[in-house]
Amino acid sequence: MSESALKIVDTASPWIGVAVLDWESSYLRNFYPSDVPQDWQLTWYANFCMAVVIPPMRWLQADARLVAQWCEQTHENFWFYVLCETSEQVEQAVQLSYTFNSKFGGLILASNVSVVESLSIPVLQFGDSALRCDDTNLRSAQKTIARWQGSFSGEHGLIVLDGSMAKQVKEVQTLLELMGVLS
Hints:
The chain is an alpha/beta fold.
């Protein structure tokens, strides 16, 4: 994708974060203690991560009231990212972004999605400013993250844990701290 096709809006300071694709992912089943009710899972999750990526199957069904509930369940420095898997979803996602107020982190575009107009919100793209990490173990995740980190030159990046990596969110955060990715 050419730089002219997409304007990436920087946040106030350089930041690389970690998020899981959907706090209700089946991979996170063992992440939550058995006594945490489902409607408390987002709050529990927000105690360990600074952001979450909301997949289209969830955000396309959300209205302003539901987004407000999500925002109320998280601390003030928590960010929501909205994943767009098709170009057609971008306009809907931009409209939804305003309902998150200060908790909106940005759009994440699948690697095959392009946007030709400039957007006034942060936009990250898988393969560039966002890394989808679905490795099967920490050793392979370390290599994947190191390759991405070596090519990443932006101000705002996100490592999105998906698949079996999602259930190891605490371990991945420790790995990233040891690698110097997170401080």
